[in-house]
């Protein structure tokens, strides 16, 4: 339905009904899970919730706008996938995505290197079997799939362990970590191709209401090719968050790029082909090169990319700008844009096309909550589980995961060389 303004898709009623689609993103960062206060994580299987003190993580408890949907979840199978969860961490991460509540999942084993956290993870997921490490857990022949929620520098190594033991792999972001791990990208890619197993990176932005709407419009041809896109991840780290072996201390911003770069790569399924990136030397102590293990001097890095469509993208990751918290983005194409006020506006024929599209996210099982990061947590697990049950590629497959992650590593390399233009390896699957 068109409004009085022929360039706007939504009238007020339609905008409220369907495009709460960007409100969750607009509010993202205004709320926090993993608060610096007591928080609980639990399931119906746990005798009582675990209480923990955890740090601020941008968007972790933002469940989105709560836009109504008429969709009803329909099971595609009665089968239960036998899953192992690894990594409780400071934010109880392995328990945050609803595996233990999904009707097509049985959590049969859990692991964390710290025994107390391993015991907590077992409690909140109602699981009776624990292992002291991922390396031991993946030897269990009864496990079909593993969620890797370990420290970011270990993701690539742990992913290979999972795949090489014949198990499907879901993994927290990013897929690889840093310049020294670029060789892992090809190893993981080849392992997925060789085994035929499912691999999915849990990029939360892919299921933000706004981005998911953009994806549907793009796939239907409503944007045409994207001319320009922007994404940003603003998360102020005046002091480094607690982390295993201190991996978050001084981390280069573009080593953690996926929450911003999703606003092109997840929208289109494309990639970045080259990059010129600039970094700003930080006054935050742990972001000074002499104070962190990465010798990283930058608190903010702004990457300018050429896209696989020949367009342009600006993707920002910033740790040292107080007063801004966001995971957000916007896109502009040949036929229309999703810009302010975070709704689609375009040429008349594009508006007509988009008015007929269902932009709402898929239904979730009644037992699975939408969860944090804009209500993306439950969606990610539902997508991973269905990809196994339906024997198809998951949305954020190995190619998309590597394109999201590797491009950030090259952006940081560029920033270290004062914006040198670098070609980026390409992954297709």
The share of residues in helices is 25-40%
Please give the number of β-strands: 18
Q: N- to C-terminal separation?
A: 38 Å
Helical run tally: 12
Reported for the largest beta sheet, the result is: 8 strands, mixed
By CATH, the superfamily of the largest domain comes out as Dihydrodipicolinate Reductase, domain 2
Number of individual domains? 2
What sort of overall outline do the alpha carbons produce when their principal axes are compared? globular
**Under the CATH scheme, which class of the largest domain?**
Alpha Beta
Q: Under CATH, the topology of the largest domain is which?
A: Dihydrodipicolinate Reductase, domain 2
What does this structure look like?
This protein has 429 residues and is of the alpha/beta class. The chain folds into two domains: 32-201, Rossmann fold (3-Layer(aba) Sandwich); 205-360 and 399-423, Dihydrodipicolinate Reductase, domain 2, CATH 3.30.360.10. The strands form four sheets. An eight-stranded mixed beta sheet has the order 17-16-15-11-14-13-12-18. A six-stranded parallel beta sheet has the order 7-6-5-8-9-10, with helices on both faces. Strands 1-4 form a two-stranded antiparallel sheet. Strand 13 and strand 14 (312-318) form a beta hairpin. Helices cover 27% and strands 22% of the residues. Residues 1-33 and 35-55 have low confidence and may be disordered. It has helices at residues 12-18, 23-27, 115-125, 134-137, 155-164, 182-195, 209-219, 258-268, 348-355, 372-375, 377-389, 398-416, and strands spanning 32-33, 37-41, 50-54, 57-58, 81-86, 105-111, 130-131, 145-148, 168-171, 199-201, 226-234, 272-281, 298-307, 312-318, 326-333, 336-339, 343-346, 422-423. The radius of gyration is 21 Å and the shape is globular. The chain contains twelve helices and 18 strands.
